[in-house]
Write a structure and sequence with these properties.
The chain has one domain. Helix content is 85%, strand content 0%. It has helices at 2-31, 33-59, 61-66, 70-97, 109-139, 147-179, 183-207, 215-237, 240-269, 271-276, 278-307, 319-349, 357-388, 393-419. Helix 4 (70-97) runs parallel beside helix 11, helix 11 (278-307) packs antiparallel against helix 12 (319-349) and helix 12 (319-349) runs antiparallel to helix 13 (357-388). InterPro entries: SLC41_membr_dom (IPR006667), SLC41_membr_dom_sf (IPR036739), SLC41A1-3 (IPR045349). It holds the Pfam family MgtE.
Length: 424
């Protein structure tokens, strides 16, 4: 009898507690409904774009087989565009929220960010090329591309994609101001998706400039000299804001690029699995981008709150940060299912091989859960540590996320492939 009474008391207590908890949870989601609407819209739009990039990637499988070693460069090249322009969007978003933004290309925050993105795009292209060539030699990864080939593909591809991305970033900034959008919710997914879509065709186009006697060598030399001159100008003649962005960005982008080249080396090593099922190639850009986009949204929100004094960079996240974590998992739950199913359907429509809809959905959700957890941890601790050391979390947050989540996301995808018996 006593046990029954205790159970009745517990049930009564739960009934009394539920009315208090339910409004609190739904109240928070209602409060953030505009964030959910903007975030889901940006993520689904960017995912559709990434699937288009995946179709391009599946479509150049012949070029990947022809130019052995090109796959080493692809994740780093597309990831670097997202890191540079995603961080730029995050800095602009913070300037909008703090009232420091003005749409001027002559001076101010926007002008400094435009110059910084231009210099960093060119310099990172040269860095990634030399690093890819060097690591292939050190680690014994087979490549048929020379350092000159890598420099041309990486730098020219980066310039072509960077010019277009710069225009998109400016357009998003102006629309955010004029329409009252929260740029934190749209910049990271939109710009990283645009970077992936534009970089792949740009790399392929640039690959046709290699192997031309004399011209190719002179072009590579000119690009390297231009990158050095741009860096020298930025540090010597640039404004204080420009110098700070360059000084803070270069080390983190170097680390980011190194990690993403490792992703490329892993991709080159596992390329046969993706060539066997081109549906996985269609999935790959969307999957890698989504982890970075989710983390980018979170990092931008956390950085803005830290700048505004609404969040402290603690070792144990505050409730305000945990609520943002919850939003990130809500976003992930819907979009990972979508890209897994869409990759299968697109492959079927294009006559490409796929493991099947259940397997594609299952492996994407499993890998996505792992990648989202990595995104959340990287976003919070990347922002918190950089803020504690007096660095700009807008500059450090997204590159850290892009690098760590690309690597951990790819590892998560391989783990998922092994779990579902699609890789050994």
């Amino acid at each position: 009898m006593q046990e029954k009474e205790q159970k009745a008391i517990r049930r009564a207590g739960l009934r009394r507690l539920r009315p208090r908890l339910t409004p609190r949870v739904f109240g928070y989601l209602t409060e953030e409904k505009e964030t959910l609407r903007q975030g889901f819209a940006a993520l689904f739009v960017s995912s559709v774009g990434e699937l288009a990039a995946g179709i391009v990637l599946a479509g150049i499988e012949g070029r990947l087989e022809e130019l052995v070693g090109l796959a080493v460069l692809i994740p780093a090249a597309i990831g670097m565009r997202g890191a540079i322009f995603g961080a730029m969007g995050s800095r602009i978003s913070t300037s909008i929220q703090t009232g420091l933004f003005s749409f001027s290309l002559r001076r101010g925050v926007l002008a400094e960010n435009v110059l910084a993105a231009s210099v960093l795009s060119l310099a990172s292209g040269i860095f990634l090329a030399v690093l890819a060539w060097a690591l292939c030699g050190v680690l014994g990864v087979r490549t048929e591309l020379s350092v000159v080939d890598y420099v041309i593909i990486s730098a020219v591809g980066g310039i072509l994609a960077g010019v277009l991305l710069l225009g998109i970033t400016l357009a998003v900034s102006r629309l955010s101001v004029s329409r009252g959008w929260d740029m934190d919710n749209i910049a990271a997914p939109m710009l990283t998706a645009a970077g992936d879509i534009l970089t792949l065709p740009a790399l392929v186009a640039a690959s046709y400039l290699i192997g031309i006697p004399v011209f190719s060598a002179l072009l590579a030399l000119a690009l390297a000299a231009l990158a050095a001159a741009a860096l020298l100008y930025g540090f010597r003649r640039g404004s204080g804001g420009l110098r700070r962005i360059l000084a803070e960005s270069l080390p983190i982008l170097a680390a980011t690029g190194t990690i993403m080249i490792l992703v490329g080396l892993a991709l080159e090593d596992r390329l046969e699995h993706f060539l066997t099922f081109p549906a996985l190639l269609i999935l790959l850009p969307a999957f890698l981008q989504l982890g970075g986009a989710l983390g980018g949204i979170l990092a931008s929100r956390l950085a803005s709150k830290m700048h505004l004094g609404l969040l402290e960079p603690r070792g144990l996240p505050q409730l305000a940060a945990v609520r943002d974590f919850t939003l990130t998992y809500i976003f992930a739950g819907g979009v990972y299912v979508f890209i897994g199913a869409a990759s299968h359907l697109l492959a079927a429509a294009l006559g490409q091989a796929s493991p099947g809809l259940p397997l594609m959905a299952g492996l994407t959700v499993l890998a996505g859960l792992l990648a989202t957890t990595a995104s959340v941890l990287a976003a919070y601790y990347g922002s918190a540590v950089s803020y504690r050391f007096g660095l700009d979390p807008d500059t450090y947050g997204i590159p850290v996320i892009t690098a760590s989540v690309d690597l951990l996301g790819f590892i998560s995808l391989i783990i998922s492939l092994v779990v579902f018996g699609l890789a050994g």
